[in-house]
Write a structure and sequence with these properties.
Helix content: under 10%
CATH architecture of the largest domain: Alpha-Beta Complex
Structural class: mainly beta
Strand content: 25-35%
Length: 369
């Protein structure tokens, strides 16, 4: 490790017992952003409200000169421009995308990194070409086991200079809904979301959806680059090899009821019937149940799920109502998917702060009549 690089990008660490958010974390929070929870009302998140995480700088890419190289364990290598992709049969997939670190700032001890609360999520209509069709044209060698996707973004992380790269198991890359996407919500990708082309891997956390794609290489052994072998792994200690973060754990969020206090965002409602609604999703299986509590999880009742619309990879709406009485309350919501995966009421901890799908709780004050 280069000593100068190590100084600019220190190893990952945990916050001290009384340590607040650092200036470096505030700088990350200013660059990146989550969805305002009131925007959960939209089936499709408007582009400017969709969560955003950019590891390094946004590269300045010209769509006219952009090229995507398909290399490695293929029968013939390809060089594709944007027109070549657009000339193919397009597919649009509605996908809920969530950052693997969503909820990190609520863990204790807190991993020092992008300080997400619960807002690192969004749902968009992504349009592009299935990756499998391009790989079929190149011809996948029988020895290939993984697809390594390289973005044009470049930086330093924990002392390692690197392009942003992620390896995806070949069987995942060959799913029909995995896209080389060039449109978001019917418009060309904006710079912050990977213009001109990005990868979209429905069901997986956001780190797999490589932006600003410039190369896709098939390899005959598992990829050991930084973003696979070091980052995005469930670890208990710094030297624990851990298990990789892959598919999104089930989660449900409540659209905040009533109106907020400016600084704290604490919610205020008036007595009487209060409509409650939100969204639930899982990368493992379709959402099967959403439960709501008005006493912080002591007692639960079932919410009504919106009708299934065939969009397997998008969140599912839910709704119910609650009769508010004057005083302080804690609303809570939890989701269960069809495979029986459910949100926990006590969060398991890991060093990177990944996969924190603790039940969503929202303190509410009901005013006196």
């Amino acid at each position: 490790m280069d000593a100068q690089l190590a100084e600019t990008s220190p190893p990952s660490r945990l916050a001290g017992e009384d340590e607040g958010i650092s200036p470096e974390e505030l700088a990350l929070a200013a660059r990146n952003h989550g969805i305002p929870l009131e925007a959960l009302r939209y089936d499709v998140t408007p582009v400017g409200l969709h969560y955003l995480l950019t590891h390094y700088d946004m590269p300045a890419l010209d769509a006219a000169s952009w090229r995507l190289a398909i290399t490695g364990k293929v029968r013939r290598e390809l060089q594709l421009d944007l027109d070549a992709l657009r000339s193919r049969q397009a597919r649009t997939v509605r996908v809920t995308m969530e950052c693997a670190g969503n909820g990190r700032a609520r863990m204790h001890p807190r991993p020092v990194s992008q300080p997400w609360l619960v807002e690192a999520v969004g749902t968009a209509d992504w349009t592009g070409v299935p990756l499998r069709e391009v790989l079929a044209e190149a011809g996948v060698d029988p020895s290939a086991v993984e697809v390594v996707c390289t973005g044009a973004d470049h930086g330093v992380e924990r002392g390692v200079e690197q392009d942003y790269q992620r390896g995806l198991p070949l069987q995942e890359a060959l799913r029909d809904e995995v896209l080389l996407a060039y449109e978001m919500n019917g418009q060309p990708l904006p710079p912050q979301h990977g213009h001109p082309v990005r990868l979209v891997v429905p069901g997986w956390y956001g780190m797999a959806h490589v932006k600003w794609l410039r190369e896709i290489s098939l390899v005959d052994e598992p990829f050991t680059g930084f973003q696979n072998a070091v980052a995005y792994r469930y670890k208990q200690t710094a030297d624990d090899p851990g298990e990789p973060a892959t598919r999104i754990a089930p989660r449900s969020l409540l659209l905040p009821p009533g109106f907020p206090d400016f600084m704290s965002r604490a919610r205020v409602v008036r007595p009487g019937e209060v409509p409650l609604q939100g969204r639930a999703w899982s990368g493992h299986a379709p959402i099967a149940r959403v439960e709501v509590s008005a006493d912080g999880g002591g007692t639960w009742w079932d919410a009504e799920l919106d009708a299934e619309d065939g969009r397997r990879w998008a969140w599912r709406g839910w709704r119910t109502s609650w009769r508010a009485e004057p005083g302080s309350h804690v609303l809570a919501v939890r989701a269960t998917d069809a495979d029986g995966n459910a949100q926990p009421t006590e969060q398991a901890w890991n060093r990177g702060g990944f996969g924190n799908n603790l039940v969503h709780t929202v303190p509410v004050t009901c005013l006196a009549e």
